[in-house]
Amino acid sequence: MKKTPLALIALVAAVPALSQTPTDALTAQAERAAESDAVAWNFVEGLTTEVGPRQAGTEAEARGRDWAVKWLKANGLAHVTVEPYMMDTWVRGAEHAEVTAPFPQKMAIAALGGSASTGDQGIEAEVVYFPTYADLEAAPAGSLAGKIAFISHDMRRTQDGSGYGFAGPVRWTGAGLAASKGAIATVIRSVGTDNNRDPHTGGTAFPEGVAKTPAGALSNPDADQLERIFARGKPVRMKLVLTPQDLGQTASGNVVSEVVGRDPSLPPLLLACHLDSWDLGTGAIDNAAGCGIIAAAALNVAKAGQPLRTIRLLFAGAEETGLWGSKAYAAAHKGTPIAVGMESDFGADRIWRLDTTFSKTNPDLHKRLAYAVARFGVEPSTDEAHGGADINLARESGAALVDLQQDGTHYFDLHHTPDDTLDKIDPAALRQNVAVWTAVVGVLANEPGEIQPPAAAAE
Predict the structure, then answer these.
(1) b/e code 262-281 from CB counts within 10 Å (16+ = b)
(2) Which residues are within 8 A (CB) of 435 and not within 5 positions of it... i.e. 6 or more apart?
(3) Backbone angles phi, psi at 7, to 5 degrees
(4) Rounded CA gap, 435 and 303, in Å?
(5) Strand-by-strand arrangement of the 340-343 sheet
(6) What is the pTM of this model?
(7) 406 has which bridge partners?
């Protein structure tokens, strides 16, 4: 049962008196953020209005970087820099799907990132239905030669987003698996929890030695319809026209900036988000909101007084198509010590739980963080934090990790769809995110001691 904010306050108030609790200035700044902070909203509104979709490796992503640089400088962040790198770039083309037999009708489809092209004339073939990913795994080698695979492996709604881990392999590896068994193309049920006729895009990959084939996702209502057609017991044929292009190597980049701390000898905090988005919507929840949240929190901490540790912001590029920015940043800064890694990349709904990697090795600090966020309805947890996709450097350096778990109940209704737009963000929930991040970052950025002692130190 979810605890109420009052119950949470009582829970953390019951622990022994804690030293180095958040300063009055930081507490006040976090509470003001919950009531009236507009910085994150202004960031998301500006980026999605003035740039729009920001497909990785394209001119649109470059305009997003330029916009972010200007915004960060205008808001007083220090050392604003673009760190460029090269990446393999894929772009969308024409998209058309239709059942040609036994009951001809069009279907809503979106190509998956990494899909091959059918050519302008498209392809038409018999479709083989697999209710689950496991059914496709069990298909004999060569059994799909000359056919189109349809994988209808549905995703379930969960608060913590764990349904994505169950359903995700259908998109991530389903087309590659089908191609390895001879399929000339693959269509999947969208990895999402909505019932809108909007397909969900996202990246797919093919194993080494397996040639890429066309791959697309049907909207959930169309996947339901195709299942019903199969239930009639007649052979099903489909025509696909998907004409994406591989552009080869193009330029992308990470945008980095800082709130400079008082003691440069202390390892900094690394706060991350990703600036790119898929091209179907405007990338408001995935992930303009995350960048707005971390930037607003860093600015709030600075307003309360120069922090002890430097706060480093990483607006990673090209996350959606293969974590290019995260990998490039980790390679460029290899060996750089990081105190704590955190990422906001799960939309803009309310934060409900605090996870860390030091609840056992540094219980005092864990409790102080719990105390700092209890007023905002966030409950502490002893679950291990894993960190987001763009903080590879923090993981590789052995840094502490903190996850501020957002409510993902409705996130996958919008994820990678045309519906990922500004109007889906609740300003009050966005402010709560900023308030929680402000409170946590404020405590961590002013922590003088070791944040994550070795496990042996706690024994």
Answers:
(1) eeeebbbbbbbbbbbbbbbb
(2) 30, 31, 33, 34, 37, 376
(3) -65, -40
(4) 13
(5) 78-91, 245-259, 311-316, 269-274, 340-343, 400-406, 351-356, 379-384
(6) 0.93
(7) 351
d(CA 88, CA 56): 9
Question: What CATH number is attached to the domain comprising 121?
Answer: 3.50.30.30
Do the Cβ atoms of 324 and 378 come closer than 8 Å? no
231 and 262 assigned to the same domain: no
Amino acid at 190: S
Q: What is the pLDDT of residue 8?
A: 45
Residues 240 and 301 placed together within one structural domain of the fold: no
Distance CA 348, CA 293 (A): 9
In whole angstroms, give the CA distance from residue 97 to residue 242.
Answer: 8
Q: Are 380 and 365 in contact (CB under 8 A)?
A: no
Query: Where do the H-state alpha helices sit in 113-247?
Result: 133-138, 162-180, 220-231
Examine the fold and report which residue of 245, 272, 292 is the final residue of a domain before the chain moves on. 245
Tens digit of each residue's pLDDT (9 = 90 or more) over 93-109: 999 999 999 999 999 99
* Angstrom distances, CA of residue 7 to CA of 3, 12, 14, 17, 124: 6, 9, 11, 18, 60
Q: What percent of the chain has pLDDT over 70?
A: 94
| Shared-domain flag, residues 80 and 177 | no
* Residue 175 belongs to domain spanning: 94-245
Whether 334 and 277 map to the same domain: the answer is yes
Q: Is 454 exposed, middle or buried (0-12, 13-18, 19+ CB in 10 A)?
A: exposed
Render pLDDT for 192-218 as a digit per residue (tens, 0 to 9): 999 999 999 999 999 999 999 999 999
Cα separations in angstroms, 251 against 50, 254, 265, 320: 21, 11, 34, 15
Q: Which two tokens stand for residue 129?
A: 């239905």
123-130 and 109-111 beta bridge pairing: unpaired
At 455, is the pLDDT very low, low, confident or very high (cuts 50, 70, 90)? low
User: Average pLDDT of 244-261?
Assistant: 98
Where does a domain end: 245, 273, 307? 245
Together in a domain, 355 and 430 = yes
Give the residue with greater pLDDT, 448 vs 16: 448
Q: Nearest Cα to 271, choosing from 305, 302, 245, 250?
A: 302
Total length of the chain: 459
- Count how many domains the chain has: 2
